[in-house]
Amino acid sequence: MDKEKFISALQDNFGETFNNAKHFSGEIKDLIRSTALNTLDNLDIVSREEFDAQKAVLDRTEKKLEQLQDQIKKLQNIMENI
Question: How far apart are CA 61 and CA 48, in angstroms?
Answer without folding.
Answer: 20
